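Thanks for the sequence, V.! I ran N5,N10-methylene tetrahydromethanopterin reductase right away. Repeating your input here for the record:
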Amino acid sequence: MALAKKQILLNAFNMTCVGHINHGLWTHPRDRSAAYNTLSYWTEQAKLLERGLFDGLFIADIIGVYDIYGGGIDVTAREAVQLPVNDPTVMISAMAAVTEHLGFGVTINVHQEAPYTFARRLSTLDHLTGGRIGWNIVTGYLDSAHRGQSGGTLPAHDRRYDYADEYLEVLYRLWEGSWDDAAVRRDRATRVFSDPAHIRKVSHRGEFFSVEGYHLSEPSPQRTPVLYQAGASGRGRAFAGRHAECVFISARDPAAARESVRAIRAEAVAAGRKPDDVKVFVGLAVIPGRTRAEAEAKRDEYLSYASPEAGLAHFSASTGIDFARYGLDEPIPYAPGNAIQSATAAAAKRGLTKRDLLAELQLGSRYAVLTGDAVTIADELQAWIAEGEVDGFNLSRIVVPESFSDFIDIVIPELQDRGLYKTAYAEGALRAKLFGAGDRLPARHPANAFRPGTVQRD
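Predicted structure:
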């Protein structure tokens, strides 16, 4: 089989916390994740990633706690399972100041902030990064987040996507429709900074939102940030097909990835877009070495610090199932719930017991792990691209910054030698770099309906 030659897109996957995906590794003597609350941790990481020509740093986030496993936060707190966790937006400007090209994908829940002020927050970041901001749209799956914000309970799964659809409509009106490009003149002689004739009020009356006002920011380089999304349920894929430009998936192997990729692209076509309007990234952990023996020794060392139980506490929150209640080989009654439906369905399909899960979580995560020398890793990545039909990878950290620096120093030169990875950044904003077209959304994207000169719905 001839393997694909398209260039690989690459994000570093991190979070403003100690334990992110591969749990327990904060105890490793070379891991620096406990410095997550210092600015130097982020600026040094940004410079490292730009040296490796990474397309972006994708920053995950939650606004609740993982309190399902054991009915509380005992394991979550002891092992720092995404707790404590800081605001993911605050350090982006500092990272942008020490880089020129690295993109920043930030996760923010649609229930976290009203769209009117959120639009300004993202426009501000797009201005300050020179058009390098992306937004990972999440609807939330933690009941603890809603209890913390309002004392209420988490809305039903599909209902959360209904809310997100209208949230996006309001944002498109603000980002795309409120200001013409010609509005900002900066004309000292005539004393006109912005021409009011080119600024229009947004009026929206919907089921969830009632908004009347002007977007507070002038048009940023991208207007709408690059739109990321990770929903894998039927409703999530429909949402991604309509809105998302980059979609993150989890898959155990290239065959499973291919099934997800084709379903996502089919949804994009159904929404009037092109299949390649969506770039699909799969999450992977990579342990490279100068030799296979070195890589395997490093993996064994990492395993001695990992916490499978911490990974299980994370997975309990993902599924809404308290796995602490079950024996190692006791059947687990998986059923559709109100958390991450795709995670529950995948575990149910395979009939995983607690023993099975702990075995898969031996590195603190259920992500696929690639271990080997540069040639072995490059072969496997190339197979994921060709057979899995993905466009790139979300590279999770195991030991930070080692996981990223090892990949940059060992794997990337091999990928470049094969013509699979860029040797320099393209010019333009993040969207232009990813898609090889303009900085703004293409006309076939649903946001176009809210641009000046098109008929808007009230």
